[in-house]
Design a protein that fits this description.
- This is Fungal lipase-like domain-containing protein.
- An eight-stranded mixed sheet has the order 1-2-3-6-7-8-9-10, with helices on both faces. A two-stranded antiparallel sheet has the order 4-5.
- Among the domains are: about 40-210, no CATH class; about 315-370, no CATH class; about 560-685, no CATH class.
- Helix 4 (about 70-110) runs antiparallel to helix 5 and helix 12 packs across helix 25.
- Helix content is about 55%, strand content about 10%.
- It has about 775 residues and is an alpha/beta fold.
């Protein structure tokens, strides 16, 4: 027994040795943790921190040297600058810890949904520390400017010995002079450096690596808080204090999904470079031979009712485009601010201001009497559209004008781009109308469920309740407002119904028309630059009563979740295709977006492109990887090293460089456009998910108006006078599938301005009627 106890004492370490071993392991863990933190530091933050420490040390030495012979006023600038540098260091440390806590909480929140509130609070804490750091950086810049001005004044006095700090520095000791010079250079350098390094202390990638779900969650918080702050600046404080899920959370989640390319190391500037290349590659002219010209009666109707769609912008947005300098005066004039005594003679609209300015602005723009405006609403609520209902006896028409995007709430409605299921009530005009062809009706009924833009669908449902679906509860015989105007024996019995809208208003008008067509067969919807909002079956089924006008390259008619995802992928592929782009950048992006790891390739049955560029089988998994939809997990280290060595070799021989990815892209193109093929497959798939959005299309008959410049053989000094006249426009019936991708062009945003579409329609009609047709004999 004694022998066994002695043996146990020999074999087992003593308590002191065990404690020492644990302490050593703890020290090693702490050392590894600090080394990991140092590696996660951004280079700019590291340089800024070292420079601030140098400012504190050198400034303290100079103050100690000069203090016995100087009063407080002379050394005050140095004290202020050095104190600001010390405070900046402390704030950088606190910001770094807050950023680390935020990143860890985001990582943990993916598996614990209860941490979503904590994730938001962590992000807010980090954000406020970064803003505090920005304030100190601005203070340092001002302090450095004040210090240099003070030093310049001391030098201008002529006698350095009479000036405190300069006198000490010029006392004949060389190291003091150098110390003062180093101090001044460091103070100015750190103040300027901090204006360009940003506020992040740590590299987010050191925490998130290549996990795209983590990057999506991170950018969801970024967009969520930024949107709420912008809404607060517009006076919507309730958004900033909201604690539950709302529409902003949905918009932020969608935007976070769109920035998922950060998971693969692609920066925002690199994506912009790809967009620039995409714009350059898309400048080739398109031939419209074989296209059917748009029917003239549709163009005439669109031109006749366009002004009501444009007049619905009763806020200052319309005047900003037409009067960039004097738009406040123009808007106040339209609102009738200078004639408040006529308030009682103006129609009363829901949500209008005290002097009923929105009603005055609408009537002033259409130049009609107040009797035509029967009902309307100007609101700033989520998924609620502003509208105006008019009775035009001279045209025997009732017009419903729906306003487009004008308020921040309208932008939220635009951003709710995920699909939602359309109910049978939403498609009542297609299902229950006797004017719809039986084959069309059958195709709609047999292909349920149908999908639409969720924000637009919700706004159209609410608008239907306003204009028709909200009879009085205390009167069983009461009807909706439109039925009270258009019913048998009513004021507007037998009148036509025209629903018009521009941009977001046009899409809402189309959804409203889908519901009203069964009740009012004499109805037509004219939309101008609308957003894609319904699936292909519904879009084709409403061609008889919906006309969508698209002008040239305007972005809104092509804006959807799927088109943005394809644009993102196409920009990166354009960057990989370009031979003049920087070699290292091409290799990096092409490796990340066109290559797959060997494990992924063997899993989907595709040959490794590094081994053989021919015979690539474009499976759906590979297409999804190219589009950024699949998540990258582990990369084969040997393949990465092989690509890196090739990259280094290419960088050493730029003269003989040719893009090595042309063969890969050529192989991909030989089997079709991988981006389009993938998204087409997704749109047809029945298994839809958040990463694979349902494709939405423009509703109704699509008329595409295209400007075409007429080449004239005449002197240059004459062409500038007729430049506007020389631009002719043609209108064609377009295929809705041709508007599923965004066209990157310099005019993509300007083409969306309301008056551009109207002017183009006018020119098309004038050309067809033989008016103002450009003729060279008339020019001479």
């Amino acid at each position: 027994m004694m022998w066994s106890d002695e043996k146990r004492r020999i074999e087992l370490p003593s308590a002191g040795e065990a404690t020492t071993h644990i302490e050593e392991e703890s020290k090693e863990d702490d050392l590894r943790m600090w080394v990991s933190r140092l590696k996660s530091l951004r280079l700019g933050s590291l340089i800024s921190g070292v420079a601030n420490i140098l400012v504190v040390i050198v400034g303290g030495i100079l103050v100690l040297i000069a203090f016995p012979s100087c009063d407080a006023n002379n050394i005050l600038p140095m004290l202020v600058v050095s104190s600001a540098a010390a405070m900046k260091i402390l704030i950088m440390i606190k910001t770094g810890f807050a950023q680390e806590a935020t990143a860890k909480t985001i990582l943990e929140s993916l598996s614990h949904t209860i941490l979503s509130h904590q994730r938001r609070m962590r992000y807010k804490t980090w954000l406020w520390w970064t803003r505090f750091a920005i304030v100190i950086a601005v203070f340092q810049l001002v302090g450095a400017t004040f210090l240099m001005i003070n030093m310049a004044k001391l030098v201008s006095n002529g006698d350095p010995s009479s000036n405190c700090v300069l006198g000490v520095a010029s006392s004949g000791i060389e190291w003091k002079r150098k110390l003062l010079l180093i101090y001044l250079i460091t103070v100015c350098s750190v103040a300027l450096l901090q204006c360009f390094t940003g506020t992040d202390i740590l590299r987010w990638r050191s925490f998130y690596e290549s996990h795209d779900e983590v990057w999506k969650a991170h950018y969801q918080e970024v967009f969520d808080y930024r949107i709420r702050e912008i809404m607060c600046c517009f006076g919507r404080v309730e958004y900033l204090t909201a604690s539950e899920e709302d529409e902003i959370c949905s918009v932020a989640r969608l935007l976070g999904d769109l920035v998922a390319y950060r998971a693969l190391g692609t920066g925002h500037l690199q994506l912009l470079a790809g967009l620039a290349l995409l714009q350059r590659h898309s400048q080739s002219s398109i031939s419209y031979e074989g296209f059917v010209e748009a029917p003239e009666e549709r163009l005439q109707g669109a031109a006749a009712f366009y002004k009501f769609a444009e007049a619905s912008y009763t806020g200052p947005l319309l005047d900003v485009g037409r009067n960039p300098i004097l738009f406040p005066c123009a808007w106040l004039h339209r609102q009738g601010v200078l004639t408040p005594w006529s308030r009682n003679r103006r129609p009363k609209l829901d949500g209008d201001n005290w002097w009923r300015g929105h009603a005055a602005a609408f009537l002033k723009y259409i130049n009609l009497s107040r009797d035509v405006l029967r009902r309307g609403r100007v609101c700033q609520d989520r998924c609620k559209a502003a509208y105006f209902i008019l009775v035009l006896h001279h045209l025997r028409s009732v017009v419903i004008a729906v306003r487009g995007t004008e308020t921040p709430e309208d932008l939220i409605t635009d951003g709710l781009g995920k699909e939602c299921i359309l109910s049978t009530e939403d498609l009542d005009g297609l299902i229950n109308s006797s004017l719809i062809h039986p084959d069309v009706k059958k195709s709609v009924e047999s292909s349920f469920p149908h999908y639409g833009h969720s924000g637009i669908v919700e706004a159209a449902r609410e608008l239907f309740m306003q204009v028709e679906g909200n009879p009085r509860d205390d009167d069983p015989d009461s009807t909706g407002f439109l039925s009270s105007l258009l019913g048998a024996g009513c004021e507007c019995d037998g009148y036509n119904v025209q629903i018009v809208g521009h941009s977001l208003g046009g899409a809402i008008a189309a959804l409203l028309g889908l519901r009203l067509y069964g009740r009012f067969p004499n109805m037509h919807v004219y939309t101008y630059g609308p957003l894609p909002c319904v699936d292909s079956v519904v879009a084709n089924a409403c061609t008889e009563f919906v006309t969508s006008i698209v002008y040239h390259n305007e972005f809104s008619a092509r804006l959807s979740v799927g088109s943005i995802l394809r644009l993102r992928a196409s920009a990166l592929m354009a960057l990989s295709n370009d031979t003049k782009t920087e070699t290292a950048l091409i290799f990096r992006l092409a490796r990340q977006f066109l290559y797959m790891s060997r494990g992924e390739i063997s899993k989907v049955g595709v040959k490794d492109p590094a081994e053989n560029h021919s015979g690539i089988s474009m499976t759906e998994d590979l297409k999804e990887h190219i589009c950024g939809g699949s998540r990258e997990t582990e990369r084969d280290s040997s393949f990465r090293n092989e690509a890196d060595s090739t990259e280094n070799a290419a960088e050493t021989d730029d003269d003989d460089y040719s893009n090595p990815f042309h063969e890969i892209v050529a192989d991909l193109n030989s089997i079709g456009d991988p981006v389009s093929d993938f998204m087409d497959t997704v749109s047809r798939s029945e298994n839809r998910s958040a990463g694979n959005p349902t494709e939405v299309f423009l509703p109704g008959l699509i008329i595409h108006i295209v400007p075409q410049r007429k080449h004239l053989n005449m002197p240059l000094w004459k062409t500038w006078r007729i430049q506007r006249t020389a631009q002719v426009h043609n209108a064609y019936i377009a295929n809705r599938e041709s508007f599923t991708d965004i066209v990157v062009s310099p005019s993509m945003f300007l083409d969306h301005l309301p008056w551009r579409c109207y002017n183009a329609i006018q020119k098309v009609l004038e050309a067809r009627n033989g008016k103002h047709v450009l003729d060279e004999s008339e020019i001479v």
